[in-house]
Amino acid sequence: MSLMPSMIDLLARARVDLRMGLPVVLTQPGRAVLALAAEQLDSARLADLRALGPVDLTLTARRAETLKARVYDGDIARIMIPADADLAWVQAVADPADDLNTPMKGPLQSNREGDADLHRLAISLAKSAHLLPAALVCPLDHPAQFAQSHGLTVLPLAAVEPLMVESSPLHPVAAARLPMDAAEAGRLHIYRPEDGGEEHYAIEIGRPDRNAPVLARLHSACFTGDVLGSLKCDCGPQLRGALAQMGAEGNGVLLYLNQEGRGIGLANKMRAYSLQDQGFDTVEANHRLGFEDDERDFRLGSAILKKLGFSSVRLLTNNPNKIRMMENTGIKVAERVPLKVGETAFNQHYLATKAAKSGHML
Ligand SMILES: Nc1nc2c(ncn2[C@@H]2O[C@H](COP(=O)(O)OP(=O)(O)OP(=O)(O)O)[C@@H](O)[C@H]2O)c(=O)[nH]1
Ligand SMILES: [Zn+2]
């Protein structure tokens, strides 16, 4: 029935549910759990969840390592919530904001019984909803009945897993002429993913030849740098520098990918900045929050370039991962064009960390 939600629709709905603090039901043959985002929990929901059975606080292995909790499930850990733990305990374990003030949260006991696949799905959902990667998970006996009587979204693991791994197809929505400081001959194209996620943009300058390598930049959104002129990173000057170079050459394409904070979202990036204020570097801060250094999906860039008719680029970047990803997804990188602008007294350490830990070319 075409008026019923598809699996992609349910996935988008589940992300919103988690952001609203609602539980979602995750199922696999013979097993089901109820999952809630730790960050959106309140005391009433914690009590109701505990009435259903034992609750685990699922974290990434990154976060568990910081907390010195045992990791039995590879990339995630299932921390048992003690009987006397309250909402503040859950939040303190999930969120590193107060780690330095209250380093002792434990002893933390990790669950090693049974399968962790549904817990892993809960973490992926929280990440893709740009929430802290921490989820409360408890087993559920009659999932279909429970979901129906509580009006909850149900996601079967087998159906949803391939959708989470694949990059969602993007479709052009609208395009119009946009004269800019850097180039009067500008055109802004909007692309919308099928999965209800962020839209991404392509700024085409001039009318680049589709049969030759185009001067291209994959720029990830940085509200603080691009809009506010933050001195903590080099994003603003890189954005304007790339557009200026394309304007000067008369041709180019800048992809503005809405993957704020290397894919963790602006709220989490500000959590990371707060940890940086406590002395951690950009990579350590991501890890303490439970994220990888870089959670972006650069396949988006190739998908948009292909939609625009390009197959080869002169890529403005210092990031070898972007080059690798372009090549692996069918866009030839004919040349790497370095983009070194915007070094300040405030971002020297940030740029040095990217070079030392993330392989950026100096
Ligand atoms: N998590 C996190 N993200 C940051 C931080 N500083 C900047 N960012 C984000 O990092 C991304 C920078 O993206 P890009 O300009 O594409 O940079 P890049 O990966 O360094 O690669 P090139 O600039 O191409 O060399 C943006 O999404 C910023 O929001 C930080 O300290 N923590
Ligand atoms: Zn930035």
Keywords:
alpha/beta; DHBP synthase; Rossmann fold; seven-stranded mixed β-sheet; 15 helices; globular; binds guanosine-5'-triphosphate; binds zinc ion; hydrolase; GTP binding; zinc ion binding; EC 3.5.4.25; GTP-binding
Could you please describe the fold and organization of this structure?
The chain has helices spanning 7-20, 43-52, 61-66, 87-94, 117-128, 143-150, 157-165, 223-227, 235-249, 260-263, 266-277, 282-289, 299-308, 320-328, 348-357; strands at 24-28, 31-37, 56-60, 76-80, 134-139, 154-156, 170-177, 186-193, 200-205, 214-220, 252-257, 312-316, 332-337. With 362 residues, the chain is an alpha/beta fold. The protein folds into two domains: 7-163, DHBP synthase, CATH 3.90.870.10; 170-259 and 296-358, GTP cyclohydrolase II (Rossmann fold, 3-Layer(aba) Sandwich), CATH 3.40.50. A seven-stranded mixed beta sheet has the order 7-8-9-11-10-12-13, with helices on both faces. The chain is globular. It binds guanosine-5'-triphosphate (GTP) and zinc ion.
Biggest sheet strand order reads 7-8-9-11-10-12-13
Helicity level: 25-40%
Q: Biggest β-sheet, characterized?
A: 7 strands, mixed
Beta-strand residue fraction? 15-25%
CATH superfamily of the largest domain: DHBP synthase
Count of extended strands:
13
Pfam family, one: GTP_cyclohydro2
Pathway: Cofactor biosynthesis; riboflavin biosynthesis; 5-amino-6-(D-ribitylamino)uracil from GTP: step 1/4
Family: Belongs to the GTP cyclohydrolase II family.
EC number: 3.5.4.25
